[in-house]
Amino acid sequence: MAKNNEFVKFDKVDKSYDGKVLVVKDLNLDIAEGEFITMLGPSGSGKTTCLMMLAGFETPTNGEIYLDGNPISNIPPHKRGIGMVFQNYALFPHMTVYENLAFPLKVRKFSKDEIDKKVEKALSMVSLSDFGSRMPAQLSGGQQQRVAVARALVFDPAVVLMDEPLGALDKNLRESMQYEIKHIHESIGVTVVYVTHDQSEALTMSNRIAVFNDGKVQQLSSPDKLYEEPVNSFVAEFIGENNTFQGEVTDISKDRCKIKLDSGKEILANPIRVKSKGEKSIVSLRPERAIIDPEEKMDNKFQGKIEEVIYHGDHTRVRLNLLGNKEFILKVPNSSARMDIKLGNEIKIGWNSFDARALDPK
Amino acid sequence: MSSETQKILTTDGIPLEVSLKKAEKKNKIKAFLLVCPLLLFIIITYIFPIGEMFSRSIDDRMVTNMLPKTFKAMESWDGKELPSEEVFASFLADYRALAEKKEHGKLGQRLNKEKNGFNTILKKLWRKMKKFEEGNAKEQIMAVHKRFSDVKYWQAIKRTAPPYTMAKYLKGMDMYFNEDGKVVQVEEDRRIHRILWLRTLEVAFFVTLFCFLMGYPIAHLLATLPMKYSNLLMICVLLPFWTSLLVRTASWMILLQQQGIVNDFFVWIGLVADDNRPEMMYNKTGTYVAMTQILLPFMVLPLYSVMKTISPSLMRAGKSLGGTPFIAFWKIYFPLTIPGIGAGCLLVFILAIGYYITPALVGGASGTLISNQIAYHMKATLDWSFASAMGLMLLTGVLVVYWIYNKLVGIDNIKLG
Description:
Chain A is an alpha+beta fold.
């Protein structure tokens, strides 16, 4: 069976609450069947609004959303058949775990036997088989979260929406729940639309990530591409750590450009968003791509002064004053060979121009 | 190893356990002293008056104190045939003592309530007994009037012997002790208290219902509106609290009277003819309208405080899981508001059951409640013991409602804010 690549389709969707400001601008987004897609962005970027429009709690001001080829703007939420996991779980506090899970089945008029079977299956999927008779308040945060996931999946919806479901959990629990949700997604093949502002969560879980800012999708791509090849300076800064240089293009060829920094020095970079001489640009370089004592073939080699050394266990973070940027961060793996990393020392730094991406100036 | 060596000592050698207890005891005394004024206040202004009310409502020591010797002599009397000479003699002695204190008239009035015709024969006895000879009291008294040879009159005296009586409570339920000492009902056309009790329950029930039907949507609106609108609405809800009860009731009188604003409006829009204006006051309608408006905040506030805590995502979850808006409301939202409904209904019902001013002013004859009857006996007939008895019956009724509520919903399920 061919996978439907446009299972969920946002077609030129606009959304405005007050008629003055567009919270979502001209959104076009295709989500494939069985995909785990994450909407990532700072708060107020429009990602939750998109989710609410898909769930049916908000209507698009313009444009249309299609589910499996059918427009759904005029279908009320309870007829859409979309499961949803809420930020605060939204478990019904007056019902037992079993009743919570049975609710979507009861309103769909399943028989008692079927309900029993499905609820049991869903509970065993989140390994809470013995908790059916508990009240939600008697469960820990992680358990409540798993019940919420089970409830969103128990009626076999085609799409499951998750609105920052792990936001209230502590770090360890959050990480283990990330894997659990990922495994559930892999084993039942449901389409998941996941909203978060936590980039590490997005990177570990998703097939694709849509980075939102200012009501627009800035970049839609797989986690590795998003990290390695950000298409603009917002994405570069939002995902992972990032060293930046501001400057002006002085020379440009097909895959290399020369940027004159504000400090007067020139560096070589990979032209991603710059096209001609004289353009302003921000050059983005991941900390781990810069190396101390560079090899000969590297085309950027400079010297910087160590301003700060922060010990992180497995690695040391070094803040350098390099080319006029006092916030240049370097990650150095801990090994006995590197004893010269001391405050005030001058060290040599180098990187390939391919890794230094010349992006838009913002 | 002995337990002595395990004891933890403080630096000055006192066992830690003792030291901690001492410190806790100090705190407990401090806490008690803090609540002491309130405790005293409640005892003096609440518990003591209720006790006083109770003793007054069952107090029947008047005759007991007037005829001490008679009742002592009557102890051995079987109550079937005429009492012995000893009883007659003691009665005469008691009555003489009363006559000297000029209190014999009171006895006649009191005993006349127990048995008709007592007052007359006692007055006659008072006139004749001055010429009585020493001894042989039974014959001389029986000679005064033939009723003294009727055993029923002596039984009536014996019935008043116990210092306590439930007669006032029976009267509150339109019942009384007949001449044989049995509980019987008064004639059908004189059973006014029962009508009042039923009407009080009816009015309290419907006022609670109306308050609930109107308060629930308001509370929901209050809980879901954005802050700037909900504050304004809250002021509207609370406005009645800031106006005197009398003023509010009076304003209803202006609105509801036959030449009042509401009637004028009905005539103006052609709903009723000018010469056929409906009576909306001095009957139950007036009581319903005014009491519902006055008690509405007591329903809205507990409902609001409960609804405020219900996360809007619960309704969303219900809908996203496939429930229609109605099912989501009925199965999820409504059950979660039950603590508020319980608190609001209990509060309004209990307040309504004892409501006084409003029914007194707008109720008229068919709209007065039991509380007005209590006030009538307090102020007009001065039968305080009867008023006390009815007050306590009302209190018992409220406690029964409370008890039923506790059984059905659970008192720990109540939320006032």
